[in-house]
Amino acid sequence: MFNELLDQRNIGLWNKLISQFDIQIIETINYKLEFKSDSNSALIYVDTRKSKELFTHELLHLELRYFGLDTVTFFDFTKFNQYEEQIAYNLLNNIEHILFFDEFIKLKFNPKLFVEGISYKKVLDKQINQYKMLEKIDLKLYYTSLYFTLKAEEYYGEKRFDFLMKLKKLNKKYFEQCEKAYSSILDLDLEIHPNVQFEKIMKILFTE
Prior knowledge:
The chain has 208 residues and is mainly alpha-helical. The protein folds into 2 domains: 2-66, no CATH class; 76-206, no CATH class. 57% of the residues lie in helices and 8% in strands. It contains 9 helices and 3 strands. It has helices at 2-5, 11-18, 52-66, 82-106, 121-130, 139-155, 161-170, 172-187, 194-206, and strands spanning 22-27, 32-36, 41-46. A 3-stranded mixed beta sheet has the order 1-3-2, with helices on one face.
């Protein structure tokens, strides 16, 4: 299986990560990283296609942990209902995508193969229109997650300006906080206490 997932582009990244983490690869129906900080181990799920691009995508999620940034520690998931939990994971996932997309390109992978799918216009319109009708979830969490879905997709080449302007009209204050946090994410230095920097970003989003 390793020969199908590794080549000269990602072998260096793989060797770096296995020097620090106990990594297991499990074949399933999709690609996903499951990181266990207490045992410094990781499960990487892959499907039968053995996509080097999507496997490397998961390695780059793990590389953030190598640098000391584990974004899931910044939410208390016990306070979320099942809908909010999914939304929070989506938010953090898209922030991580912004953080490592450039590295994916530096490794000479095709940017169009960075993720499995992109949100479609009808889906985005529906999500934006649902914002004022939602009752079972934290609206700011939903808004912020939607913003970073759009910004992540914009970051890797999709046209999302019109959707972002629709989002801005719904809540200008939330939008400005998201913009401020996004700028800080672009400036985040993974070599210098990334957890401290990320904590400040989360405060911009949820405490200001």
